[in-house]
Amino acid sequence: MDRNTKLKNILSTFVSAYSKFDNNIIVHSKEVAFLTLSICNALSIDEIKKKDIMVAAYLHDIAASRTNLLDSLKKFDTVEYHAHCIYGYVFFDTFMPCNNFSKYILYHHEPFNSKNIINNIEIPIESNILKIADDISIFKLTDNDITIDKIREFLLSRKDLYNPIYLDIFLSNYGDEILKKLLDKSYLEYLADYGDEILINNTDFVTLVEAMAFVLDFKCEITTMHSQTVSLFSVLLAKEFDLPDIFEIRVGSLLHDIGKLAIPDSILKKPSSLTPEEFEVMKKHVEYTYEILSNLKNEKILKIASNHHEKLNGQGYPKGISDLSFQERLVSVADIFAALTQKRSYKNGYSKEKTIEILRNCANNCEIDTCIVNKVIEKYDYFIDMNFELNETYNNKINLLKEKYNTLSSYNEFINFKINPT
Ligand SMILES: [Fe+2]
Ligand SMILES: [Fe+2]
Ligand SMILES: [Fe+2]
Ligand SMILES: [Fe+2]
């Protein structure tokens, strides 16, 4: 079944997810998106290009969690900036090949007329729109008593870094309007009205969601692949049961643990079992998943993802509900199956015998659906083989990403940036 989703819903979901690293990022992304939109409108940039620039504006700092950006957010023109530009570029170039927006991300800190062409990837003139928007937003963060005049003074003191056409917008009466909206926060309403009519199809939607799930998997090397595996098992199960529509299952399973972005590394990566207090913190990931995915405005996906720890006997969390749809039950079994067979920070993957025994016990305790468990047992070897293939593909992608990163970053001599999932 083909449907369209509003692009802005997925972008808000993305921003909400990675803002779990730091709330400054969500404010910053929205401010940059608003300023970018205002510049595009002032210049009557065509809608297709505007859409790409807007996607880049929302996602330009996606690599913030993987670099020193959060620490250096308030410093200008520091070398750390290049690391997250390159990472953001290679991330989308690898996971969403043929996109038109990653080159804007690559050059979003590059001064106007820069000759720093990386690996023959030409600098789009519009990338300087992101630069000026980004600088204004960051400058605003550094001053609690910010005014329009101060922003103008700041821009003029660095005027060689900006395309004069973009700079002039902020020196005009229209610039007054934009900056006023930025400072009194009314820009949020303006931004909320943007892009209601811009839709993306299911295929592009799933590609974006896959990229988003990778951001989570990257957070913790040991759980790298978990979201992808749960999604694979869920989709295979859905096919086994001839479910007519797997779109929601695919998306819900990919994003079921996205709330873990908000869980501290000390708990997420703890090499031993969690204390009861730590477990309470860990359990919160489901509520964060709910919070993040509310932005998608798709009730089915929201329920599939946020009910994955609920049990049929009502003993699950966070709500303790027992009335679960077949799709929700299915993802919950896929999640347990993946968790049992995969390595975790505190355990290795379990054997086939032990995995089956635990699944049977859970079914006998009326925690999970017996019929789905039986299907997992019946197809056990096939599912594991398919997951092995998925791992191979994933590892190839990671290697490609590392290779691309190393090729591009050698132009900028970055040494302290790590890509660690292996
Ligand atoms: Fe940036
Ligand atoms: Fe930024
Ligand atoms: Fe979970
Ligand atoms: Fe999970």
TrEMBL record:
All copies of the HD-GYP domain together span: 201-392
Among CDD domains, the record links this protein to: HDc
* SUPFAM superfamilies, sorted: HD-domain/PDEase-like
Matches recorded under InterPro entries: HD/PDEase_dom (IPR003607), HD_domain (IPR006674), HD_GYP_dom (IPR037522)
The UniProt entry, under Gene3D superfamilies, shows: Hypothetical protein af1432
What Pfam families does UniProt report for this protein, alphabetically?
Answer: HD, HD_5
Q: What is this protein called?
A: HD domain-containing protein
